[in-house]
Each structure stands twice: as structure tokens, then as C-alpha cells.
Amino acid sequence: MGIDSIIEIIESSQEMQARSEVIRLSGKKIGLFPTLGFLHEGHLELIRQVRKRSDFVVMSLFVNPIQFGPNEDFEKYPRDTEGDLTKAKGKGVDMVFMPPVSEMYPAGFQSVVRVDNITKHLCGRSRPGHFEGVTTVVAKLFNIIKPHMAVFGQKDFQQLAVIRRMVKDLNMDIEIIGVPTIREPDGLAMSSRNKYLNQEERKSALSLKKAMDMASKLAGEGERETKNIITSISELILSYPFTNIDYINICDPDTLEDINLLKEQSLLALAVRVGNTRLIDNCLINIG
Ligand code: PAF
Description:
With 288 residues, the chain is α/β, with parallel strands linked by helices. The chain has two domains: 3-179, Rossmann fold, CATH 3.40.50.620; 192-286, 2-Layer Sandwich (Pantoate--beta-alanine Ligase, Chain: A,domain 2), CATH 3.30.1300.10. It is built from eleven helices and nine strands. The strands form two sheets. Strands 1-4-3-2-5-6 form a six-stranded parallel β-sheet, with helices on both faces. It has a three-stranded antiparallel β-sheet with strand order 7-8-9. A hairpin with a 2-residue loop joins β8 and β9. The N and C termini lie far apart (57 Å). Pantoate binds at residues 34-36, 64, 67, 134, 137-138, 156, 159.
């Protein structure tokens, strides 16, 4: 069975724009689920959430080269187009926008969308240019697919915050839906990159969730100094083999600026390399 007999696939931006226009004119609400693919249960939850709120669901399936740095995993990013299309169809995706790179970035392409302050923290520090790549492709997808709403996971907390900022600043008439992180039974956040972990690294990957639990416990016991919390959870993470901390920050959930003392609500964000795999996770710490 060919993949296009599983679900309707559109590769041209012009055709997608024309199809979206007709769907809009028929009065239907378009929901967008943008993804790099290699779908797991976390992604399927995003589809469920956008399906609930919209009449026509478009999934964009595009491994966006401009959001990967020169030494990052663009080439080896896991891909399973046929599997993704089957899963998406099963969860009620109506159409897939799957452009080739040359369609999104033709010769002569030279525009970017850049969000300023909040991209300078957390992953913005260790992945220069990453968020510019994300906002540029997401803005393009919004213009091509013309959704009424789009769904993003809270595991990429900063990405969600950056996209909300872009939508607000540029007056984009699109509702952004954030969906809580889906975890494996032992607590590891679902991620396409978990596939890179071998058995031993998989055990060490659990250190991120254990660290977040420890931080909440310390806060619950009255610790307010973020540097003390960060020291304790860094030690915990580094006690697991193969771990290397990229960053651990406790910050304001709106501005993403570091804080010295816990606020009523603070964001703990972590990026940890386990072997060669960079994992991120986050949680909100509430006090008072
Ligand atoms: O989170 C992702 O999968 C990607 O960053 C996105 C939003 C699809 C843009 O390429």
C-alpha cells in the first residue's frame, strides 16, 4: 500500500494554501500539529488535543534543517515517514503537509523571524540560532496552512513560550495550545531522541525526573535559595553514569530569567547529555 493511499499528503505550499482557503471558507476550524516526526505517544496526545478543538487537522511533517546547528543531529534525526502517517491517520489527522526542503527554503531564501530576549536563555545559550530556525519555520507553516489553532508540547517549554511571544508580538490570529508532557511509566519524558539511548543510558536518563522530584521536595521542605537546589540536583544527576549537564536553571516562567529565590511559581529547566544524547525536561515548582 502506498503512503498516499493511507492519508492525503500535500507537498506544495501553494496547493496547501489553496486547500486551506477552501476549508476556511466552508466554516471549518483548522487545527495544526507541526512535527519533526518519529511520532510517539506524546505526539499522539498533541493530535488528540487539537482534534478535540478543531474540525480539520493538518499535520506538518518536516525535519527543519535551519533549527539544527552545524554539529547537531539533523542528518541522523530519527525518521519513519510511513509509520508516522499510519499513526496520524489512526488519531484523526485529515491532511499532511510534507514539503521537501527546497519547497520551504528555495534558492534565494533570506528572511528570518527572530524573537529577542526569551530566546537568549536556557537552550538559546547552548543552541545558538535554534529558536530563529523554529520561529521562521513555524511562521511559514502558519502562513501556508492558515490554522485557527496550533498545538505544542510543554516539554519544549521555551519553544512554547517563544512561539506564544511571536504570535502576540506579530498579531498572528492563531490560538496556541500547550499540552502537558507525556511520560513513560518510570517518569522519563517521551522524546524522539530517547531512541538514541542504549539500555544503560536509558537508566541514567531517569536522573532528570529524579532531579525534578528532588527539587520539588526541597522546596516543599522550605528551601528557597535556587543555588542550593541546583547544587543538590546537579550532584544527583552526576551520580548517574554517562551524564553531563548542559544547563540546570531555575527561572521566572514568563521571562525565563534566572532567579535567586523561588517565587510562588518558578520554572526548573534542565538539559543533560546522557552519552551522546541531549535530553531536556522541565517542571514548575509551586510554593506558598
Ligand atoms: O517541536 C518540534 O517538533 C519542532 O521544533 C517544530 C515546532 C515542529 C518546528 O520545526
